[in-house]
Amino acid sequence: MIKKFIDKLLGKPAAAAGKTSPLGKRVEIPSDVHGIDPELLDERAVKVVKTLTDAGFEAYIVGGAVRDLLLGVRPKDFDVATNATPEQVKGLFRRAFIIGRRFRIVHVVYGRGREHEVIEVSTFRALPTESDAVEGNEKTSKRELEGKSHAVDASGRVLRDNVWGPQVEDAARRDFTVNAMYYDPQRRLVVDYHGGLADARAKLLRMIGDPEARYREDPVRIVRAVRFAAKLGFTLEPKTLAPVKQSIALLRNVPASRLFDEMIKLLQTGHSLASLVQLKKLGLVGQGAGGVFAVLDAMLSDSGDLPDGVRGKFVRQAFEDTDRRVQEGRGVSPSFMLACMLWHEVLDRWTRIRSSGEPPVPALAQAIDAVFDARIGDISGRGKLAADMREIWMMQTRFERRSGSGVFSLVEQPRYRAGFDFLRLRADAGEIDPALADWWEDFALGSDDDRQALLADARAAQQRQPRAVRAPRAESADVADDTDEAEAGESVAEAPAKKRRRRRRKPAGGGEGAAAPTPAAE
Question: Could you tell me the pTM of the whole model?
Fold first, then answer.
């Protein structure tokens, strides 16, 4: 009682959380009404449900998977909800791992390597009767959070939510009505507590409970609303929409890594351009957004639109290609998409650093570091993602040099195809001469004779160009021919360089098409 009284004096909203998410009424919808096609189900998700029910627990396919099934779309991911605790779930499967602190869930893993599949299993959560309040956040209050089942920060954002309860309360804890339905694949029943089926058919996003309080619990729900609206063509119900703009400031308290992940999901739905429109509509980008998405701020104008001219065309084409790949069921690479989004800020910084006298390659490396610091922060430490972006960008200087053994080593690199696709986008947008991208495409796919002819053509073109006004460098031409540190576009027509080309080594693998080992922009 004393704790509740203090929370009330401090204006902490968590104590009233149970009042802001009213319980719904259980409605069981048979297959002849909901019309879910069993062929769209994932057999491994069904197997997880059956294993849990055979052990005496309740278990259902849940959330976005049910929503997509009702819309006649095969879900990308299948989640399962059960009344079994994480420890009980883990004990039923050979390869199962309890993960997470904020929400403890279980990953049940099938298969290995690139073909593996993860079924995410969560335990029904209860409506908390009271919450422990902490002063800091996930990072600064780790000790305070230890052992707590439900905790919130000073703004009411939920930091821990591991209180188990019945299904009716679990449904009330979910965000939108269309995500709060449960499907029993064995009885072919949909369980709906909040009118989710009607809202799905009306293409309406409706928040369960008081929207303002629910955004305060988890501000990322604002971003999820954007994603669903763009992906599904849904409209936000007026009461759900009303508090969005005043709640945007709450996103600044969300860990940067979580917001970054949500941004990637948002742009990889197959509707990235529609997502940008929704972000602008809700005030999440452009002036006044408060820097919620620093990466998007680097790419968009102050009004929240793609810029005019080459820059806007380049990003638009990159997003259109990404959307097309998603819709065709092909893989997309977050590193490639991010490299496209940040390229022109890298290019601006690179130009400024070069103008101060720094050689091109070191200048580009400095520009990349500065952009990572400014726009991504410690997210850039995410290993392969940052390394792939850096490699795509650094490769652009090497494409300018079409001589010596360096051309063979370049096309043999594992990330060559991604670097080339980036070059092709630059050419299609009008940033560079398309002839350069054409030359590299022909070289990568050509036979040994084709490649020799292309090198001869490039050498002849360089010899026809006027020499740069600079000190003689005949003695260093051989060295420059075999290093990535030579300036892009530099005249290399001196006799020693020509002699070096005649000693060109053959590429490993030799045969036609050996230079394009990976799918485009995978």
Answer: 0.74
